[in-house]
Write a structure and sequence with these properties.
27% strand; two-stranded parallel ribbon; alpha+beta; elongated; 52 residues; 2 strands
């Protein structure tokens, strides 16, 4: 099996004001260990909690 050259993570913020930072930091920790190109895409789908 070939190793991926890059990876994209996509997160939605709807009603997720209190966990979004934790999810991002944990994801970064894992992605950096993989030593491949990565991007994290965070989608604010009109969250009423102002989690932007």
């Amino acid at each position: 099996m070939n190793s991926p050259k890059s990876i994209s993570l996509i997160f939605s913020l709807y009603r997720d004001k209190y966990t979004v930072k934790k999810v991002i930091y944990k994801s970064l920790k894992i992605l950096r260990k993989l030593r491949i190109k990565y991007e994290i895409i965070i989608i604010d789908d009109c969250c009423p909690e102002k989690s932007f």
